[in-house]
Amino acid sequence: MSSRALIMGRIRRALADTPRAADPAAEPVARDYRRTHGDLDSAEAARLLAENLADYRAVVHRCDRAGLPELIGSLLAERGARTVIVPEGLPESWLSATGAEPVPDLAEDTPRVLDARDSVVTGCALAIAETGTLVLDGGPGQGRRRITLVPDHHICVVRVPEQVVCSVPQALARLDPTRPLTWISGPSATSDIELDRVEGVHGPRRLEVILVQDGPPAKEPPPGE
Amino acid sequence: MVTEETSQEPPAFPAAAARAVRNPVLRANLRHATHTIRAKRAAAVAELSDWAELRAAGAAIKDHTLRHLDRYLERLETAVTAAGGQVHWAADAAEAGRIVTDLVRATGEREVVKVKSMATQEIELNEVLAEAGITAYETDLAELIVQLGEDRPSHILVPAIHRNRGEIRDIFRERMGRWGRPAPDGLTDSPAELAEAARLHLREKFLRAKVAISGANFMVAETGTLVVVESEGNGRMCLTLPETLISVVGIEKTVPDWRDLEVFLQLLPRSSTAERMNPYTSMWTGTSDRDGPRTFHLVLLDNGRTDALADPVGRQALRCIRCSACLNVCPVYERAGGHAYGSAYPGPIGAVLTPQLRGTGTPVDASLPYASSLCGACYEVCPVAIDIPRILVHLRERVVEGGPASVRGSRVVIKPARGHAAERAAMRAARWALDHPGVLRAGQRLAARTRRLHPDRLPGPGRAWTDSRALPAVPAESFRDWWQRTRGEAGAPGSGRTPDTGRGTA
Ligand code: SF4
């Protein structure tokens, strides 16, 4: 007998005396919890997002669309970045005021090549205010998962208000499970020494989040549109 | 049936606990860490006004999944396969070890990087791989500390919780060089420097790794998605950089639908690290053309889980999401330490899970249900509402009175342990808990809050005592709480100490 058949047989014997419907869907689970905590308008949601990101040591900046290239340029310069990874689909204008050398996210790059890069700039799929979380799904302007992992400095741009949701339930409803997803809540950290939180282990030790307020329409459409 | 404790198996709980209690550094480390996290967890939970409803939904989703586990596993297998993954089934630890060893061998690699995983610890995968000449590098900071220190894990979330920063620095200084890049010169015991040393040491391993082994926190049957929740980024390194990924996951980690994650991703981080959200969560569905490992294997592990499933009282232990909140509040764990539990699963969850996965035939496994004062704190904090005290009482009955059980999938009748080494070990464990005023005192304080959990008669050792006496009802407010409240700082009667500290008593 295959182990699959063996295990399935064990499960069915174990449940032999347990009453159950033929179709699990006939036994729905009660979900009395809330979809969101608090009734936030979009400005409040953005504020809560900023607060929670900062609470976990992400560095939060705000600007309008016109000011974005300058802000990205100055953050990279401050960091002394010589190279910056640019994922496919990132609006060209974002790096128009940057002195660092832009390098593409290539499938054939080895991890060692990535390790030699200074910074990476990406967009995101959405951000969750209640938990201070950014979610990347590999869509336009986000790149492969590893480019936001190996370099030590990550700048992530969130479009406010349309990319901000309040809660985890709202986020899951908007995400596509077939895409590889990375949820990021602050720079990497550990609680492994005396159960006390220390920031900065394997992922980027500096995480900067730019909340771009959608002002009057700019010349170029935002990514994904 | 094992009749004597042998050196091959871990010592029964009371002997191991007694050893831990004599180690003041260990006790201080445990106490410091668990007390730090308790208050933080309470604050993180208090932020969500619907915690009780989330907890109820978490328990209900898990119960529902377990009740239809065969169907959901079929769905999961179909979805993972359709997304480009390969699914393997392992009935026990030995089979899982063989499957993983063969998969690694087929890649031609001799080393693998590992993400912390309880399932691979349970099946002692690193040892199995070592026998096959394959080196497994643990990449979680605490696991690294344990591996370098040639030590055993003592906590679910923080396996090196029994080590303080000074000890960690010494281990890094002395041992890192043997496994790869040595610790930087002049390394101090500041946690930031220790984390930096781990970053440097492990980076070279991540960058060259071709094969990774992980577990998973959740598997979504509907979509075939696996979820790994972590803090450090070592998980992301293992899940995205290598060419081959092998995930070994217990069958009970299944949830039916994508949407169910909305419950568990709120319950887990707040219960485990007391964070609104852990720093990194990875979700992947099979393989993607352009991102991450080209080859993905999922090894579904039974190893006693179906035996637990066959027990209508005990099966709720399979809801566990391994948050470790129950360890952090347990007065027995705090004093005995994680090693005393003799398995990968320490603390209250270990005391109910291990005897179900492995049976109650050995002294250590028979003594585990007695490693508790039944205070109920574990139940109170458990995010999926596992009634641990009730399972403990149920398992005590099984140890002492025997009865029907499932062993490796077959229905058997367990003989009472009476007269065996197992019973003697169980008695000693019961006595150990009764003899430690610190354990009982913390227990009493919490017992008042969990009155409904308390049995009328004590099963097992202690039954003879309750046979001739009514077990005293637990008062709404324990005597010590009353004393504390009315006398404030004056301390407990006759003790000269503040009752809450438990200092010098364990
Ligand atoms: S039993 Fe409950 S509290 Fe303990 S680790 Fe499992 S889920 Fe967490």
Describe the structure.
Chain A: Residues 52-212 form the LUD domain. Chain A: This is Lactate utilization protein C. Chain A: It comes from Streptomyces palmae. By secondary structure, chain A is of the alpha/beta class. Chain A contains 5 helices and 12 strands. Chain A has helices at residues 3-14, 42-55, 68-79, 111-115, 168-174; strands at residues 59-64, 83-86, 101-104, 119-122, 126-128, 133-136, 153-160, 164-165, 181-184, 189-193, 196-199, 206-213. Among the domains of chain B are: 48-303, 3-Layer(aba) Sandwich (Rossmann fold); 437-497, no CATH class. Chain B has 23 helices and 12 strands. The longest helix of chain B has 23 residues, at 24-46. Chain B is globular and about 60 Å long. Chains A and B meet through α1, α4, α5, β9 and β10 of A and α2, α3, α4, α8 and α10 of B. Iron/sulfur cluster (SF4) is lined by residues 156, 271, 320-326, 349, 381-384, 386 of chain B. Iron/sulfur cluster is lined by residues 156, 271, 320-326, 349, 381-384, 386 of chain B.
Give the helix/strand layout.
The complex is a heterodimer of chains A (225) and B (506).
Chain A lengths: L2 H12 L27 H14 L3 E6 L3 H12 L3 E4 L14 E4 L6 H5 L3 E4 L3 E3 L4 E4 L16 E8 L3 E2 L2 H7 L6 E4 L4 E5 L2 E4 L6 E8 L12
Parallel strand pairs in A: 1-12, 2-3, 2-4, 4-7, 5-8, 7-12
Antiparallel strand pairs in A: 5-6, 6-9, 10-11
Chain B lengths: L12 H9 L2 H23 L4 H17 L1 H14 L3 E5 L2 H15 L3 E4 L3 H5 L2 H7 L3 E4 L2 H8 L16 H15 L11 H18 L2 E4 L3 E3 L4 E6 L3 H7 L3 E7 L3 E2 L5 H12 L7 E6 L9 E7 L3 H5 L15 H4 L2 H6 L10 H12 L4 H5 L9 H5 L6 H14 L1 E5 L2 E5 L6 H15 L1 H11 L15 H5 L11 H9 L19
Parallel strand pairs in B: 1-10, 2-3, 2-4, 4-7, 5-8, 7-10
Antiparallel strand pairs in B: 5-6, 6-9, 11-12
